[in-house]
Amino acid sequence: MALRNINWKKYAPLLWMLMFPVLGWMYAATNNVEGQEVYRLITKVDEAIPFIQIFALPYSIWIFYIYVCLIYFFKKDPNVYYRSLMTYAICALLCYLIYSVFQTTVDRPVVVGNGIVSDVMRYIYNRDQPYNCFPSIHCFSSYMVMRAIWTSSFRNKWNIILITGMSSTIIMSTLFVKQHVIMDALAGIFMVEVVVAVIILFERRFKLSRARQKSTFEA
């Protein structure tokens, strides 16, 4: 009975999240180096960062975390949800374009030991080829939701602490599990800032255009 009372049309916009499997397929299609030169962006600082397997856990739940944040945004303010979806889609497509012409890699250490953490670490390495690193999708998307909560109308102490803390942990995890280097993370963050700025600019121009049309019509 309770399910019948739910206004399903209200939640229809969440279907836009079905774009994630499509983007995932595009990622897989670019995750190879056939006929490409591969570059390494590792620095002395990256070499000094230790390999810490426990960070495989936050790294592995990344996409589920992004889903939860987007659903939370939709519930609180659909405009934040739509802007985040658009930001993700544009940034992901830009990443795929970069991967197709500028492929980078990160040298992976040998995973030792037995147990859940080591098994998760091996799963991550086996599932994903060591390419498609610059910019980092993990980093840009984690920064995206963090930035979104910072600028939202529904921000408060607790959601800022939770989302900032989790996003920061995931960004750091990409370095500690040796899936990315610092340049990958910085490029992802920079890309979000540029894309969000462009989206906001277009939103303002669209609103201004609508206001002018309304004013002309009423006159």
Largest sheet: 2 strands, parallel
Count of helical stretches: 9
Class from helix and strand fractions: mainly alpha
Strand content: under 5%
- Rounded to an integer in angstroms, the radius of gyration calculated over CA atoms is 20 Å
**Distance separating the two termini:** 51 Å
> How many structural units, i.e. domains?
1
Poorly predicted parts: none
Residue share in helix: 55-70%
Which sequence of SSEs, written as H and E, runs from N to C? HEHHHHEHHHH
Fold and architecture overview:
The protein is mainly α and 219 residues long. It has one domain. The chain contains nine helices and two strands; from the N terminus they run H-E-H-H-H-H-E-H-H-H-H. It has helices at 19-30, 44-48, 56-60, 62-76, 78-101, 116-127, 137-151, 157-176, 182-218; strands at residues 38-39, 103-104. It has a two-stranded parallel sheet. The longest helix is centred in the C-terminal third of the chain and has 37 residues, at 182-218. The protein is globular, with a radius of gyration of 20 Å.
Fill in the keyword field for this structure.
single chain, 219 residues, mainly alpha, two-stranded parallel sheet, 9 helices, 2 strands, 66% helix, globular
Summarize the structure.
With 219 residues, the chain is mostly helical.
Lay out the secondary structure:
Blueprint lengths: L18 H12 L7 E2 L4 H5 L7 H5 L1 H15 L1 H24 L1 E2 L11 H12 L9 H15 L5 H20 L5 H37 L1
Parallel strand pairs: 1-2
